[in-house]
UniProtKB/TrEMBL annotation:
Annotated N-acetyltransferase domain residues: 1-157
Annotated PANTHER family: L-AMINO ACID N-ACETYLTRANSFERASE
Protein name: N-acetyltransferase domain-containing protein
Cited SUPFAM superfamilies: Acyl-CoA N-acyltransferases (Nat) (SSF55729)
Organism: Desulfuromonas versatilis
Length: 160
């Protein structure tokens, strides 16, 4: 895992498009957030980790602390190149986020996804990673497309 570089944008954009899971508007939103991270190094809302294989970008994750909460983090985007899916890079990205959140004293990671069929593989990935469906808002994105929120909680050591 490494930090985001501006030179990663074309490859990450291609990965987002190649997954087939994201609409054009969603890809634009994901790229906009990547640009925020690159353009404002002082911002503290988003953190990006990039996965590489043999020097080639194969995926990334974008996450950050939830404002006005204690120890809650949102996982906003995770994507791996379809050419390497199933080879553990998505799991490595998730483990990286979880380890960082724990290191920072985080209590939980929340993420949301769509109920649409194109996200079924994604939902199964979250299930296998130990995330639990916490809530569902029916017809959130559009009629027939629910927002599903997944959560993973961590034990936090209390300070004496």
């Amino acid at each position: 895992m490494r930090s985001l570089n501006r030179s990663d944008l074309p490859q990450l954009t291609r990965i987002l498009e190649a997954t087939g899971a994201f609409t054009d508007v969603e890809v634009d939103c994901a790229v906009e957030l990547l640009n925020i991270v690159l353009d404002d190094p002082g911002q503290q809302d988003y953190v990006v980790a990039v996965a590489e294989d043999a020097g080639k970008v194969v995926g990334y994750v974008l996450y950050g602390p939830v404002p006005l909460t204690q120890g809650n983090y949102d996982l906003y985007w995770i994507a791996t190149d379809p050419a390497v899916q199933g080879k553990g890079f998505g799991q490595q990205l998730m483990h990286h986020v979880e380890n960082e959140v724990r290191r920072l004293g985080g209590r939980m990671i929340c993420l949301e996804t769509s109920s649409q069929g194109g996200y079924e593989k994604t939902r199964k990935f979250y299930d296998r990673a130990g995330y639990v469906e916490e809530s569902r808002i029916r017809d959130f994105y559009k009629t027939g497309d629910d927002r599903i929120t997944y959560v993973k909680r961590f034990s936090v050591q209390k300070e004496n």
